[in-house]
Amino acid sequence: MNHTIKTGISSAFIIFVAACTQNEISPEQAVVEQYTAAYNEADVASMTALMSDTVQWFAIEGGVTIPMADGKEDLSAQLTTYLASTNTTSTLSDWTQNGAFLSVIETASWSSQSGETMSQSSLAVYEIRDGLIQRVWYYPAE
Fold it and tell me: Checking phi first, is residue 30 left (phi over 0); if not, alpha (psi -120 to 50) or beta?
C-alpha cells in the first residue's frame, strides 16, 4: 500500500474510534440520567434509590451557598411535595466530568397556565460516590 492510502485508512479508523467512544457514558453520568428520568416520571422512590443517605442539595445564589436539603429523607420529602404540584420535565446537555464531579446544563420545561411552553436552563454540579448522588450544587436559572 502506498503512504497516502495507509494514512487515509489510519485517519478513518481514528475518526471511527473517536465517534464510538463519544457515545459512551460514564457510570456517574448514568446515575444522573437515571435520576432525571425518574424526575420526569415524578417517581420519587426511584430518585431516592439513587441518593446516598447523607445526600446534600445546595442552591448557589450570588456568592452564597444555601443548603436546601440535608439527607435522603429531607430531600425525598421536598421532592414529593414539589412533584405533586408541578408538570415540569427536564433535559440534560453539555456534560463535563472530572472524576466524581459532573457538571451539566439542565433545561426545565413546563406549560404555563395559558398553555404556553416555558423553559429555563441552569447549571448543576453532581458529586457521585459509590454509584449514588452525594451532593448537588444548583446554580441560578438563565
Answer: alpha
Cα 47 to Cα 77: distance, rounded to the nearest angstrom: 11
CATH architecture of 26-138: Roll (3.10)
Q: Hey, is 90 helix, strand or coil?
A: strand
C-alpha cell at 40: 420526569
Selection from 138, 117, 113 nearest residue 36 by Cα: 138
- What's the CA angle centered on 22, arms 138 and 13, to 5 degrees? 165
pLDDT in tens, 25-58: 999 999 999 999 999 999 999 999 999 999 999 9
Query: CA-to-CA distance for 140 and 11, rounded, in angstroms?
Result: 43
The 10s digit of each residue's pLDDT in 84-136 is 988 899 999 999 999 999 999 999 999 988 989 999 999 999 999 999 999 99
Q: Pick from 53, 72, 52, 64: which is nearest to 127 by CA?
A: 52
DSSP strand pairing (117-129 vs 51-61): unpaired
